[in-house]
Structures are given as C-alpha cells and as structure tokens.
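Closing statement on the guanosine-5'-monophosphate sub-project.
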Amino acid sequence: MENCLFCKIIAGEIPSQKVYEDNRVYAFRDINPAAKYHVLVVPKEHIESVNDITAENADTISHIFLVIKKLAEAAGIAEHGYRVVNNCGEDGGQSVNHLHFHILGGEKLKTQL
Ligand code: 5GP
Ligand code: ZN
C-alpha cells in the first residue's frame, strides 16, 4: 500500500534490520527498542489492524504466531519468557497502521495491565 511505512520496509524501500522473512511474513528489529530483544512481526499483505482480520487472512495470522514462537526459540528467550504485544487503533496506541506484533524479551519486563 502506498505511503505505508511497513509496506515500504517489506519492499526494501526503507532499510531495516531483518531477522526473518518468508512468503507471508517479515520480521525486523524495532528502531526504538523497548527491551533488549524487540522485534516486529508483520504480514506482507497490508492488513491495517486487528480490526481487519478476516476468515480469509486468519491463516496468515496463525502463521505469524508460529513464526513468533520460532523466533523466540532461535533468540534463546523462549524458556525465560517474553511478551507479544499488539496495539490496535488510536486508543490502543497504534502508531503505524499496518498490523504488527511486538516481541519483547531478553530481560525481565515491567509488569503491565
Ligand atoms: P505501534 O506503536 O504502532 O504499536 O508500534 C510501532 C513501532 O514501530 C514502534 O515501536 C516504533 O519504534 C517502530 N518503528 C517506527 N518507525 C520505524 C522504522 O522506520 N523502522 C523500524 N525498524 N521500526 C519503526
Ligand atoms: Zn502496509
């Protein structure tokens, strides 16, 4: 999608520190890490937010969670645990309108909620 920051990152038009890629998913380091390990996992397809998950793209979402699990294992943070975060919409604090899941870990995270 035009003028979408993460679509441009996926297309390689804006540089990123890629950690994983397959035909449906792209994962890269957050530019402003909130933890020692902070990776964003996004669908290559432009899905705006959780509000736009449908029966047709739900397969990609479940695939994303398999990727998240594998990345955590590969990073060596799976055993100690980590946090998966999604911000949806304005009240949820979503600042980039391309669905993304934050993986945060590598250290003891502050309790939230
Ligand atoms: P949100 O606040 O929408 O849940 O998360 C957006 C995330 O994207 C933020 O954690 C922010 O640091 C990250 N981000 C914003 N612009 C860029 C960028 O150009 N490159 C990378 N790698 N991350 C970005
Ligand atoms: Zn996009």
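The mean pLDDT is 97. With this model delivered, the sub-project is considered complete and its resources will be redirected to Aim 3.
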